[in-house]
Amino acid sequence: MRKTTRRTILKTAAAAATVAALPINANAQSGEPIRIGILTPLTGAGGNDGPRMLKAMTAVFDEVNKQGGVLGRRIETVVEDDQTNPEAAVRAARKLIEVNKVPMILGTWASAVTAAVAPVCWESKTFLMTVSGADSITLLPHQGFLIRTQPTSKLQATAHGEFMLSQGAKRVGIIGIQAPFALPNKEHLENTLKPKGAEVVSHVIYEKDKPTYRSEIDQMMRGKPDYIYTNGYAPDTVVLLRDLYRAGIDMPKFAQSYAVPQATLDTIPPEVSTKVYTGQPSADIESPAYKLAADRTGDKEPDGYVSQATDWASMAVLTIAKAKEASGVAMKDNVRKICQGSGQKVYSAVEGLKVLAEGKEINYEGASGPCDFTDIGDILGCRFRYMHVVKGKLEFLKLV
Amino acid sequence: MEVLQLIVNGLMAGTILAVPAIGLTAIFAVLRFTNFALASHMTIGAFAGFVANVTFGLPAVAALGFAFVIAGLVGVLSDEFVLKPFRRAGFITTAIGSIALTIALENIVRFIFGNQLRGYDLPILRDWNIHGIRVSPQQVENFVVAVIVMAALFAFLSFTRVGKSMRAVADNPMLAAIKGINANVVARLVSFVAMGLAGLGGMLIGLDTTIDPLIGFKTILQIFAAAVVGGLGSIPGAVVGALVVGVGEELSLLVLTPAYRTAVGFIAILVVLTFRPRGILGQRAY
Q: How confident is the model over B46-91, as pLDDT tens digits?
């Protein structure tokens, strides 16, 4: 008779654990995959952010798939490029919904794109998650089929106004692209500046894709500003910065961080970008979810977009698990049940799946922030991270 | 003073537009279709110039020559192997084929170079202020290059045997064939010169801004408007049309907000074609 040793007990336990785990993994491989649509800008003005957002989402889904998937099914992504172009985005969204039958679309970036894609989504009961900031987005009659992790134009412009005030701005000239956020931003800036004795002295809206904005700059300068607020995307903002430098305008300039990424700064001589300040909704850099996102993507300091994309993918997985089905309606009805409330705090999809499997309630706390949403799909608040350009390189300035 | 500044800005912008617009109209004059693949050849020229300037360290003027030659060669190959078979199916099919071609070529550039914005290795100089009118040295340089290239092209068409053959085929292909002019050779030559000009134009725009794979696509509508306003098929017409569109867009800022700029080119098409259906200078090639 064989003697029972500690080693054989351990071996048996390991074998038992493997066998116990088998049905889950086998099930994960055998079920029909859950298809999730990803519609990010891989080209066009958002081409700098879209691919990184895609990578962040894929990393979350890969991690979940390695642990056996969700509801015993693998997550499969169907990726389309919205080209930062509303018309191309609508075509791509229709393809995702009608051909690939996805229950949700993650990733629209430009406000004009989201405004065009959102009706296609809510009409087909497809859930949409976005980073578009224009106030008008969540005011659309989306019936709950939309949430965004990006702060509204109001939150952003108010924060930007306060930043410019802190820098001593008294007369702000706004020059920005024709976009849904153009006029609301101006209004919110005026409302922030006026009570503090500062004002918006000129506001010029330009068209995208122009090789020069010399005449537009002349128009803006007629208001005699002492601080310039640029409100565009990267391809037009770089043209603007070059033309401002050529015109000898050396006053401070503020831009959204997505309009002046380091890759853009690398295309221009350092003297052109002096006194350029950027701001962006900050990721929650102290959150465990943020650290996990950094490890998962291999990005030491994931920015707001990578963090938000991480959160969409995680919320998608957890909502499907909570609702026990992958449909747009289930997403709409259950997304708030996994990311706000008094449930156990979790910081990743895999962790959340384990807690849900134990029958407990969860509250997903994301890499971008707490991921608590209002009834119309806006986040309740966030921090802002400001950078300035020193010798052609972006350097951290402050977190507010 | 404001009007004068706007006119100067418009002339600078229009002159740059004129270079690829000549290419578009030259192809129409000889091959009788609108080749929208001009857009991707602008992109190819801009990136060829980038490689010459940034990778090989050549000065901008030499890089412009590189942009011309590479875009011209790609133009000949793409016409020979892609668009030529389409031509038998007619004008519309070939024009649509050229749109497909431009998207394919643009994506090849994207595959090789990626999406990010790139800039040439050039200093950015402050504007000159001449009696209250601001002029950028880079724009003046681009303006001079564009004028020299156009002058060289007109001399080529006027004084060389090959240039005269091209005009003959454009004006009366049947008579040119009777005279023994080989239409295939002229087609290849026109593709080379026209797409070379597109490449040059793409790089000229890039010198003043930045480049990305969409650089040609962003400007093709303005170029098309310029060629139509001047008279599609007329080479001097392309120059006149580009200046009208360039100056018109700038002057429109006196009464319109900049957000409506692009509409001006198309309003110009409507106005000109209403009174002169063949464009300002008609359709005679030269």
A: 999 999 999 999 999 999 999 999 999 999 999 999 999 998 888 8
Alpha-carbon gap, residue B218 to B215, rounded angstroms: 5
**Among A32, A33, A37, A31, which Cα is nearest to A316's?**
A37
pLDDT digits (tens, 9 = 90+) for B208-232: 888 999 899 989 989 999 999 999 8
Q: Which residues pair with A104 in a beta bridge?
A: A127
- Give the tens place of pLDDT for each residue, A318-340: 999 999 999 999 999 999 999 99
DSSP string covering B45-74, please? HHHHHHIIIIIS---HHHHHHHHHHHHHHH
Q: Do A239 and B126 touch (CB under 8 A)?
A: no
Asked if A259 and A393 sit in the same domain, the reply is yes
A271 found inside a domain: yes
Using the Cα atoms of residue B86, residue B91, residue B96 and residue B98 in order, give the sign of their dihedral: positive
Instruction: Write down the mean pLDDT value for chain A.
Output: 90
Count of domains for chain A: 2
Residues of A in contact with B125 (CB under 8 A): 246
Task: Specify the pairing of strand A384-390 against strand A276-281.
Answer: antiparallel
B135 contacts in chain A (CB < 8 Å): none
Spatial contact of A284 and A307, defined as CB atoms under 8 Å apart: yes
Task: Show the tokens assigned to A308.
Answer: 């938000």
Q: What angle do CA A397, A392, B53 make, to 5 degrees?
A: 160
Which residues in chain B have Cβ-Cβ distances shorter than 8 Å to A217? none
Domain annotation covers residue A295: yes
User: Which residue type does B283 have?
Assistant: Q
For chain B, what percent of residues have pLDDT higher than 70?
98
Instruction: Please indicate, yes or no, whether residues A289 and A349 belong to a single structural domain of this protein.
Output: yes
ipTM greater than cut 0.85: no
- Residue A290 lies inside a defined structural domain of this protein: yes
Please give the residue range of the domain that contains residue A67: 11-152+285-364
Give the contacts of B92 (CB within 8 A, at least 6 positions apart).
none
Q: Where are the domains of chain B?
A: 2-214
B-interface mutation test, from A246, A264, A272, most B Cβ less than 10 A away? A246
**A105 and A22: one domain?**
yes
